[in-house]
Design brief:
This protein has 14 helices and 24 strands. The longest helix has 25 residues, at 77-101. Helix 3 packs antiparallel against helix 4. The model has no long low-confidence stretch (mean pLDDT 97). It starts with a strand and ends with a helix. The protein is α/β, with parallel strands linked by helices. Strands 1, 2, 3, 4, 5, 6 and 19 form a seven-stranded mixed beta sheet that branches. A five-stranded parallel beta sheet has the order 8-15-9-10-11. Strands 20-21-24-23-22 form a five-stranded antiparallel beta sheet, with helices on both faces. The chain folds into three domains: 2-143 and 268-328, FAD/NAD(P)-binding domain, CATH 3.50.50; 151-265, FAD/NAD(P)-binding domain (3-Layer(bba) Sandwich); 342-450, 2-Layer Sandwich (Enolase-like, domain 1). Strand 23 (390-396) and strand 24 form a beta hairpin. It is globular, with a radius of gyration of 23 Å. It binds 1,4-dihydronicotinamide adenine dinucleotide.
Amino acid sequence: MYDLIVLGGGPAGYLAAERAGHEGLSVLCIEKEHLGGVCLNEGCIPTKTLLYSAKTYENALHGDKYGVTVEKAALDHGKVIDRKEKVIKTLVAGVKATLKANKVEVKEGSGFIKGRNAEGFVIEVNGEEVTGARLLIATGSSPAVPPITGLREQLEKGFVMTSREALELREIPKQLAVIGGGVIGLEMASYYASAGSEVTIIEMLDHIAGNNDAEMVKMLQKGFEKRGMKFYLGTKVTEITKKSVLCEKDGEKLEITADKVLLSIGRRANTANIGLENINVLTERGAIVTDERMRTNVAEVYAAGDVNGKSMLAHTAYREAEVAINNICGKKDIMRYNAIPGVLYTNPELASVGETEDTAKAKGMDVKVIKIPMRFSGRYLAENEGGDGIAKLVVNNKTKTVVGAQALSNYSSEFIVTCGTFIETELTIDDIKQIVFPHPTVSEIIREMVFQY
Ligand code: NAI
C-alpha cells in the first residue's frame, strides 16, 4: 500500500514522484518504457543535442565571417547520434538516482487501473496488484496518426517516421519530406537540412509554426528557404505511396518524392488501455480533464503533463506535477497557463511567451507593441554577423504591464525567461526600468524596449 502511485515516469511523473518522496509520502512510480519519458529519451533533449551539432557545424562552415577559416568542416552524423545516446544515458541515470534519493520505488512495466477498493486504487503491473491511496496519471502522449491512405502501412515499413525514428536514423536521407510545419517538423527539418538532406515541408495551414508572431514566422521561413528548404503551405496530404507524398494545393495535385517522410502533425494524449474507465475518469477529446489544481473528476486522482492535453510541453508538465503534489500534501497551489514560454530551437531560435500582437487584439486588449532589432544588443552584434533578429514586447496600456514577448534570434530561449517572469509577477514598466541587466547580454535590450514605451 502506497500513499501515491504515479503512472508514467516522464517529466510530469518523475518530478511528481520526486517531490512527493521529498515530502515524505511512500511513492511508487510505474514506467513502461524508459524513465525520463519522451522528453529525455526521444524528444527535447536528443533533439537539442542534434541541433547543437548542426549549429557547431554551421558555425564552422561560415567561420570566415568571424575570421576563422576551417579547411574541411564536416558533420559526422553517426558521431552525433552516438553523442546523443551518451547524453540520454547520463540524464536518465540522473533521474534514477534522484528518485532513489527521494525513496521512490520504481517498477518497470505497464500499469493498468483495475478499480478501487476500501484502501484506494488498485493498479496491475507485471501481473502483480498494488494499491495507492492516491493516483497521479502522467502517461504522456504519442504522435497523432491521421487516416491518410497508405500512412499506417508506410509507418510500419519505415518509409514514414515519427520523431522517435527520426532521432535514431543512422543515415542522412537524401530527400526528406516533412508533414506538418509545427515544432517537431521545423526542429527536425533544421537539423536534417544542416546535415545535408533536401528538405520539403508540407503544411496544411497557410503558415508554419502555429500561433507564433506572424512577422517572425515569415522571417524564419525566409531564412529556411535561404538554406534550401522548400515549403508547401495550404497543402493537403492525400496519400503516401512507397516513395512519395501525394498532396493537393489549390485544386492541383502534387507528388513529392522522398527517401524518408517525417510525420509531425501533433500529438495525442495517452489515455487508451490504462483502465481509466474502471474508475470513471473523465476525458474530453481523448485527454484527461483537470482543474487548476490538477485534480480529475475522481477524488484523489490527479493528472499532469501531456495526458491532460492542455499544453504539451515538458516545462508545463514539471509545474503541473508540482501543483498536483502540493495539493496532495495539503498546500493550495494553482496552475497558471498565461506565462508558459514556447521555444522553437531552430537556428535562429523563435521564442514566445504570453500574448502576441494578434492574440492580444483578438481578446480586445488595448496594447502597445514595441519592436526592436536585436542588433541594438552589442552582444548580439558581436556574435551574429549579418544577423537580422528582432524582439517584441506586448504591453497592456491599461495596467502598464507586459502581457507578451517574442524574439527571433540566438539566445531567444534565454531571453524569454525574463519576459515570462514579468508576466508572472505583473511588474509594471516602471518597475522593470529599475532592474539592472548584466552587460553585455542579449536580454538587456529589454531595457531599451521598456524605455521606448
Ligand atoms: P504541432 O502542433 O506543433 O504542429 C503540427 C503542425 O502540423 C501544425 O502546423 C498543423 O497545422 C500541421 N498539420 C496537421 N495536420 C496536417 C496534415 N494532415 N498535413 C499537413 N500538416 C498538418 O505538433 P508537433 O510539431 O507534432 O509537436 C507535437 C508536440 O510536441 C507539440 O505539442 C509541441 O509543443 C511539442 N514539442 C515541443 C517542442 C519544443 O518546445 N521545442 C519540440 C518538439 C515538440
